[in-house]
């Protein structure tokens, strides 16, 4: 981030009981790189906040711009190590270089060798390791039990909060982990490799609910709800209704404003609401001015226990069965005026923008699921099951399928991380943001998840079909990818519309 004074601000992270900063080799070697006396020694400040529960601590470093000059000799390998991820950590610079046709901007961009699209920042890499460990140690032993019981384990929800996974992007001042969007996606993907149900709980909470508060909430709403969302209260995002699914803005839930203007009354029903059984905080879309059509839609914060608000039927589902999906009823629920999110009549804009982001989360869930299914199966065919005197995975007919499946997973991951970086950089096509990338990533990842998890069952024969392992569950869980946060047809419609805008005369 370039500050008003023209200084460049970096974050350095390290993992588990850091020995920094007092005897830091980074600190010791920072000064010698100031060969030019006009360049001040870097200012290094340990973060005031305690280590996050993820044991990733942050150190902020301010460097004067000449440090970034390509000719500036800085022998310090640690510094180069920190500087290299800059295009990804602070990608706005890169986006600007792509969009601005000035020679200097182009030169800045080409100073860096582009990395593979899957390359992660150090923070993301550390998070990935910690989430993978947590998923395998704490979640995996309970996956089958939760699926059979169609119930999310309360202990796991508590641990998700303790691990800092429920406030990945929430600023530290509100009790969150203050990481980037990429980190959130990495966490969702890693969780889905083990359990897509836990993954979607984290996904909806972070990419939809937290993001709404962070992006559109007043300071009062942020101060009241973000600390709770980061540490103890699950959130739900409530848009769909019995009569409005793909046509989401045909919603019938109504909001009326009191004469004094001090409150709103909400009446109606929501359907298919993820996390509803665990949630305390609900973002509810209701139409305040039906005569204005979708332009009357506004967003409100409701809390469990408000008079007239009931969480009704929990759906019995094909897949992601541990994830709760419920019907909600609002019978003249009175909410204080300060619980309006943003402005009256702008709810549809918020929903569109947030769901674009949410789709990348679902793409991550589906990519993680595909990887989880793939890995489960190949461990079996390449290490355990023998037929005709050899491991079944050694038959060329199997090897080719495995190679094809992995290629498709990699392609899905490429689309996913391209969408992540496009979102973080603000987009590469003027006015389009990351809509196309998000739609393509979700569409393709859900197709790959369905295909690979289906094949993974076949590769294991009867053992893939029974409920002893997790393969049949991955396949059941994969179906939802083509349905929620916009069906596959809706993604195709979005992509086609954008292509038409680009090519149709
Ligand atoms: C497990 C689960 C969890 C969910 N979680 C949430 C949540 O937390 N919050 C929330 O608000 N909603 C949630 N949803 C709702 C979800 O977003 C909707 O189910 C989805 O948008 C599709 O709506 P629908 O089910 O009414 O299908 P419909 O809209 O009735 O679609 C039926 C079929 O028609 C096709 N179709 C519809 N319109 C078009 C078109 N214009 N062109 C081509 N084909 C079309 C669809 O692609 C689909 O194949 C969840 C749903 C499920 C199943």
Automatic annotation (TrEMBL):
It holds the Pfam family Acyl-CoA_dh_M. GO terms for molecular function: flavin adenine dinucleotide binding; short-chain 2-methyl fatty acyl-CoA dehydrogenase activity. It is an enzyme of class 1 (oxidoreductase). PANTHER family: ACYL-COA DEHYDROGENASE (PTHR43884), SHORT_BRANCHED CHAIN SPECIFIC ACYL-COA DEHYDROGENASE, MITOCHONDRIAL (PTHR43884:SF1). Residues 345-497 form the Acyl-CoA dehydrogenase/oxidase C-terminal domain. The keyword Mitochondrion applies. Signal peptide: none annotated. This is Short/branched chain specific acyl-CoA dehydrogenase, mitochondrial. InterPro entries: Acyl-CoA_DH_CS (IPR006089), Acyl-CoA_Oxase/DH_mid-dom (IPR006091), Acyl-CoA_Oxase/DH_mid-dom_sf (IPR046373), AcylCo_DH-like_C (IPR036250), AcylCo_DH/oxidase_C (IPR009075), AcylCoA_DH/ox_N (IPR013786), AcylCoA_DH/ox_N_sf (IPR037069), AcylCoA_DH/oxidase_NM_dom_sf (IPR009100). PROSITE patterns: ACYL_COA_DH_1, ACYL_COA_DH_2. Pathway: Lipid metabolism; mitochondrial fatty acid beta-oxidation; Amino-acid degradation; L-isoleucine degradation. Its EC number is 1.3.8.5. Homotetramer. GO terms for cellular component: mitochondrial matrix. GO terms for biological process: carboxylic acid catabolic process; fatty acid metabolic process. Its cofactor is FAD. It comes from Sphaerosporella brunnea. The keyword Flavoprotein applies. Its main location: mitochondrion. It catalyses: (2R)-2-methylbutanoyl-CoA + oxidized [electron-transfer flavoprotein] + H(+) = ethylacryloyl-CoA + reduced [electron-transfer flavoprotein]; (2S)-2-methylbutanoyl-CoA + oxidized [electron-transfer flavoprotein] + H(+) = (2E)-2-methylbut-2-enoyl-CoA + reduced [electron-transfer flavoprotein]; valproyl-CoA + oxidized [electron-transfer flavoprotein] + H(+) = (2E)-2-propylpent-2-enoyl-CoA + reduced [electron-transfer flavoprotein]; 2-methylbutanoyl-CoA + oxidized [electron-transfer flavoprotein] + H(+) = (2E)-2-methylbut-2-enoyl-CoA + reduced [electron-transfer flavoprotein].
């Amino acid at each position: 981030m370039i500050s008003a004074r023209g200084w460049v601000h970096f974050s350095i992270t390290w993992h588990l009981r850091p020995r920094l900063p007092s005897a830091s080799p980074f600190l010791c070697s920072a000064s010698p790189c100031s060969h030019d006396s006009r360049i001040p020694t870097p200012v290094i400040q340990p973060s005031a906040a305690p280590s996050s529960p993820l044991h990733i601590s942050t150190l902020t470093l301010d460097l004067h711009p000449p440090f970034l000059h390509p000719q500036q000799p800085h022998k310090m390998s640690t510094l180069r190590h920190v500087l290299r991820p800059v295009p990804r950590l602070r990608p706005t610079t890169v986006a600007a270089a792509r969009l601005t046709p000035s020679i200097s901007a182009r030169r800045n961009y080409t100073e860096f060798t582009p990395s593979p699209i899957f390359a992660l920042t150090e923070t993301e890499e550390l998070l990935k390791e910690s989430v993978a460990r947590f998923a395998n140690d704490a979640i995996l032993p309970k996956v089958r039990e939760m699926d059979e019981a169609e119930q999310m384990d309360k202990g796991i929800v508590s641990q998700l909060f303790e691990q800092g996974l429920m406030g990945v992007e929430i600023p530290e001042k509100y009790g969150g982990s203050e990481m980037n969007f990429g980190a959130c996606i990495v966490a969702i993907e890693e969780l889905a490799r083990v359990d897509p149900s836990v993954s979607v709980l984290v996904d909806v909470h972070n990419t939809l609910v937290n993001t709404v508060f962070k992006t559109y909430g007043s300071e009062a709403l942020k101060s009241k709800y973000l600390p709770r969302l980061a540490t103890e209260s699950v959130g739900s995002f409530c848009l769909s209704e019995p009569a409005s699914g793909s046509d989401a803005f045909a919603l019938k839930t109504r909001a009326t404003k009191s004469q004094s203007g001090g409150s709103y009354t909400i009446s109606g029903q929501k359907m298919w609401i993820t996390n509803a059984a665990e949630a305390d905080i609900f973002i509810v879309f209701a139409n305040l001015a039906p005569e204005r059509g979708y332009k009357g839609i506004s967003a409100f914060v409701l809390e469990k226990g408000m008079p007239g608000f009931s969480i009704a039927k929990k759906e019995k589902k094909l897949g992601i069965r541990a994830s709760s999906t419920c019907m909600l009823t609002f019978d003249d629920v009175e909410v204080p005026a300060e619980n309006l999110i943003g402005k009256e009549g702008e709810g549809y804009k918020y929903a569109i923008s947030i769901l674009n982001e949410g789709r990348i989360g679902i793409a991550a869930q589906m990519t993680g699921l595909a990887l989880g299914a793939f890995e489960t199966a190949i461990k079996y065919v390449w290490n355990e099951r023998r037929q005709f005197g050899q491991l079944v995975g050694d038959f060329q007919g199997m090897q080719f399928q495995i190679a094809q499946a992995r290629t498709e997973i990699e392609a899905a991951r490429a689309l996913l991380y391209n969408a992540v970086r496009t979102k973080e950089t603000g987009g590469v096509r003027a006015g389009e943001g990351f809509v196309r990338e998000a739609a393509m990533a979700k569409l393709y990842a859900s197709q790959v998840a369905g295909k690979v998890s289906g094949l993974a069952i076949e590769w294991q024969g009867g053992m893939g079909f029974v409920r002893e392992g997790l393969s049949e569950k991955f396949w059941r869980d994969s179906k939802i990818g083509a349905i929620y946060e916009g069906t596959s047809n809706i993604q195709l419609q979005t992509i086609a519309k954008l292509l038409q805008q680009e090519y149709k005369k």
